[in-house]
């Protein structure tokens, strides 16, 4: 029987000293240095803070986190492996194994939050909710269809960048919102690590997308771009409904939507495209921005005459052996 | 009006930002073998950030090589840094590192390839900055 199966070619042993694309090593190094595990985060320090949330706020938070868990699960088990088959260098394949694994770590970390803060019954109920929520299921379906059905590697990359750089943000908003009010701050620290990882993933997959686009004709490029914007519109529609259903009771929907617009534009930029939403629709609540990147406040702008200009975040950053002055 | 020098990796975000600015700019090459620009007048540097979680490696190696040359370095007047707020405290950190090393101000920060607002602010800001520089010299 086994003789009937086609033999797969023996791959060439990977040589990291012979790179076809320097970005592969750069991103490999970035991802491996940034490696982390949820067990290292002091989540139990949030138990008291959790108890101060209303029941409605707790339910919302658990649901949002199950939604994020689903996206991470898809990216871990389907998305990154699907991209691996399209890799053009062996090093790209290796980077994607790292991305796949970190998505599993992300998915795992939500369960760490749950086991620290919530009852089993609440969590089971939220996972049931995620299986039945039409918006969550629809956006997953749109992404999975691109991963599975199409023979076009570029469309898979577009779907993947939209998942990494856009779809997560309706969920990421909430822990940043709590953090800006000094709630669940340790949970927010963990989420910030996930946000950092997803930025590298979106950047790298978007970069590989741009390289692949260079090999296409003008007409083919235009077709992929049309596809990308159409998919973003469809996903945005779903995200708007999802956002309303979750955040209307707290009166936060408009605030979340601005955050979605802002991140949609960043997802498009990762693909090398211009943003879609005008700046006036991307004005994210400054408290959310500050929660996202503390120390990097928006007023730090020499041109407008505000802020000092020599402030440096971390001294270690200037210690690079390549400087010779 | 002073000059503009920039670095952009092959992902091209900073390149797209500078192109949309519509100001003549010299690009620091990606490949270490290629010749560096030799600015003849004072310039502002635009650069992206590649820091790890600890802030290490924020400034691209090619930018360090460019600034290691004292002739080029002494014409640097300010830095504009790109990055991604997703990286939290290390957002646009390359600008701070160069500013500290070279004792020049960080003029502006933006994300990825920048927004329309960023383009307008930098265009106007550079204009005012060079006028101010010129009046100081005279």
TrEMBL record, chain A:
It holds the Pfam family Ribonuc_red_sm. It comes from Salipiger marinus. GO terms for molecular function: metal ion binding; ribonucleoside-diphosphate reductase activity, thioredoxin disulfide as acceptor. The lineage of its organism: Bacteria, Pseudomonadati, Pseudomonadota, Alphaproteobacteria, Rhodobacterales. Its cofactor is Fe cation. Fe cation 1 binds at residues 72, 103, 106. Its EC number is 1.17.4.1. Fe cation 2 binds at residues 103, 164, 198, 201. The active site is at residue 110. Provides the precursors necessary for DNA synthesis. Catalyzes the biosynthesis of deoxyribonucleotides from the corresponding ribonucleotides. Binds 2 iron ions per subunit. One of its GO terms (biological process) is deoxyribonucleotide biosynthetic process. InterPro entries: Ferritin-like_SF, RNR-like, RNR_NrdF-like, RNR_small, RNR_small_AS, RNR_small_fam. Tetramer of two alpha and two beta subunits. PANTHER family: RIBONUCLEOSIDE-DIPHOSPHATE REDUCTASE SMALL CHAIN, RIBONUCLEOSIDE-DIPHOSPHATE REDUCTASE SUBUNIT M2. It comes from the Bacteria. GO terms for cellular component: ribonucleoside-diphosphate reductase complex. Keywords: Deoxyribonucleotide synthesis, Iron, Metal-binding, Oxidoreductase. This is Ribonucleoside-diphosphate reductase subunit beta. It catalyses: a 2'-deoxyribonucleoside 5'-diphosphate + [thioredoxin]-disulfide + H2O = a ribonucleoside 5'-diphosphate + [thioredoxin]-dithiol. Belongs to the ribonucleoside diphosphate reductase small chain family. PROSITE patterns: RIBORED_SMALL.
From TrEMBL, chain B:
It comes from the Bacteria. InterPro entries: Flavoprotein-like_sf, RNR_Ib_NrdI_bac, RNR_NrdI. This is Protein NrdI. Belongs to the NrdI family. It comes from Salipiger marinus. The gene is nrdI. Probably involved in ribonucleotide reductase function. HAMAP family: NrdI. Pfam families: Flavodoxin_NdrI (PF07972). One of its GO terms (molecular function) is FMN binding.
């Amino acid at each position: 029987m086994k003789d009937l199966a086609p033999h797969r070619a023996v791959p060439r042993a990977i040589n990291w000293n012979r790179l076809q694309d320097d970005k592969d090593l750069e991103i490999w190094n970035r991802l491996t240095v940034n490696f982390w595990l949820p067990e290292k985060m002091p989540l139990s320090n949030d138990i008291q803070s959790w108890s101060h949330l209303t029941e409605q706020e707790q339910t919302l938070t658990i649901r949002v986190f199950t939604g994020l868990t689903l996206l991470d699960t898809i990216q871990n088990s389907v998305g990154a492996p699907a991209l691996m088959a399209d890799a053009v260098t062996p090093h790209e394949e290796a980077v994607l194994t790292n991305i796949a694994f970190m998505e599993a770590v992300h998915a795992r970390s939500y369960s760490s939050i749950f086991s620290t803060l919530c009852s089993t019954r609440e969590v089971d109920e939220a996972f049931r909710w995620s299986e039945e929520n039409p918006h969550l299921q629809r956006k997953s379906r749109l992404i999975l269809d691109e991963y599975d059905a199409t023979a076009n590697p570029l469309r898979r990359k577009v779907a993947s960048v939209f998942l990494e750089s856009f779809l997560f943000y309706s969920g990421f908003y909430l822990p940043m919102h709590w953090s800006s009010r000094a709630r669940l701050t340790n949970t927010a620290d963990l989420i910030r690590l996930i946000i950092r990882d997803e930025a590298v993933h979106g950047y790298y997959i978007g970069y590989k997308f741009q390289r692949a686009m260079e090999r296409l004709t003008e007409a083919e490029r235009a077709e992929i771009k049309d596809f990308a914007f159409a998919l973003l519109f469809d996903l945005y529609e779903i995200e708007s409904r999802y956002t309303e259903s979750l955040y209307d009771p707290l009166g936060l929907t408009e605030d979340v939507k601005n955050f979605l617009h802002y991140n949609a534009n960043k997802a498009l930029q990762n693909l090398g495209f211009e943003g879609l939403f005008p700046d006036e629709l991307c004005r994210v609540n400054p408290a959310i921005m500050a929660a996202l990147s503390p120390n990097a406040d928006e007023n730090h702008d020499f041109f407008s005459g505000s802020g000092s200009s020599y402030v440096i975040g971390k001294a270690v950053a200037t210690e690079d052996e390549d400087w010779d002055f | 009006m002073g000059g503009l020098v920039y670095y952009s990796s092959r992902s091209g975000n900073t390149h797209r930002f500078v192109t949309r600015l519509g100001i003549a700019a010299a690009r620091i090459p990606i490949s270490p073998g290629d010749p560096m620009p030799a600015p003849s007048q004072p310039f502002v540097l635009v650069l992206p950030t590649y820091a790890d979680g600890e802030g290490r490696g924020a400034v691209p190696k090619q930018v360090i090589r460019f600034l290691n040359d004292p002739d080029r370095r002494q014409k640097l007047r300010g830095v504009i840094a790109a990055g991604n707020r997703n990286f939290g405290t290390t957002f646009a950190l390359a600008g701070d590192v160069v500013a500290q090393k070279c004792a020049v101000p960080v003029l502006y920060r933006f994300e990825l390839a920048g927004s329309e607002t960023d383009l307008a602010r930098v265009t106007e800001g550079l204009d005012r900055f060079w006028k101010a520089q010129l009046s100081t010299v005279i």
